[in-house]
Write a structure and sequence with these properties.
mainly alpha, three-stranded antiparallel sheet, 8 helices, 44% helix, disordered C terminus, DNA-binding, transcription cis-regulatory region binding, nucleus
DNA sequence: AACGTGACCAACCGCCTTAAG
DNA sequence: GCTTAAGGCGGTTGGTCACGT
């Protein structure tokens, strides 16, 4: 049974924030506990309001083309990890990125004939083993991509991903795989720049890394 | 002017993780 | 180590506005 959220308690507001509530929240921003703001919104709501709207360094307005490109690329790498994607876009919030993706980018990609969920032209991402192409499970892809975020356990994670896939495939082949994600729908300059960035990440410096080829 | 429709986005919901006691 | 409250995050909803009929 789910524990009741603080929002379910009596005396908490739902809905839009007033200017006075915003002012109060700004005064209390940064305190350890959002509830200390003594507002009639629950702590989660206070946090959300601050992060998505009141924080001073928030960049509002239209997304630049390069921001859009970056979102697409990061989404291809990370999936719907909006907070991680937003972390690479200074001044943008996860909610903003998520909304932009769902309302703008998703449509654009569909128009281009690209499946926005997997960034492919109706093909399935595959892990290529030495002798036999093997479809990567979503769980293992998840593990494989975690290292991009600077996870200290990235090597073991990638390894366990491979182990998972190997076990599920009933294969005992040695793995010698490298990460290679294609962004053929992006401009050549953007792709070159991103590839350079990827080359600087630890994941590509390891010898035993899965190859993930996204066919476009 | 009234109504319908679609787009946008702020806010909520529910699950999961984290941390305090 | 266990329990529980709070925070974090992704998915979803619903209010508002613009535009077309």
């Amino acid at each position: 049974m789910r524990k009741p959220c603080c929002c379910d308690k009596q005396g908490t507001n739902k809905g839009a924030w007033s200017r006075q509530e915003d002012k109060k929240l700004i005064v209390h921003a940064g305190q350890a506990c959002w509830r200390s703001a003594d507002l009639h919104h629950c702590g989660k709501s206070c946090r959300l309001r601050w992060i998505n709207y009141l924080k001073p360094d928030i960049k509002r307005g239209n997304f630049m083309p390069d921001e859009e490109d970056l979102i697409i690329k990061l989404h291809a790498l990370l999936g719907n990890r909006w907070s991680l994607i937003a972390g690479r876009l200074p001044g943008r919030t996860d909610n903003e990125v998520k909304n932009y993706w769902n309302t703008q980018i998703r449509k654009k990609l569909k128009k281009m004939g690209i499946d926005p969920d997997n960034h492919k032209m109706n093909q399935i991402p595959q892990l290529h083993f030495h002798n036999q192409p093997q479809q990567c499970t979503s769980a293992s892809m998840e593990k494989a991509f975690n290292p991009i975020n600077g996870d200290a356990d990235m090597v073991s994670d990638a390894g366990s991903c491979l182990e998972d896939d190997r076990m599920s495939a009933g294969s005992s082949h040695d793995l010698n795989l490298d990460l290679n994600v294609a962004f053929s729908f992006l401009s050549p300059t953007v792709v070159a720049g991103e590839q350079k960035k990827l080359e600087n990440t630890e994941i590509l410096e390891n010898d035993e890394i899965p190859t993930l080829v996204l066919f476009n």
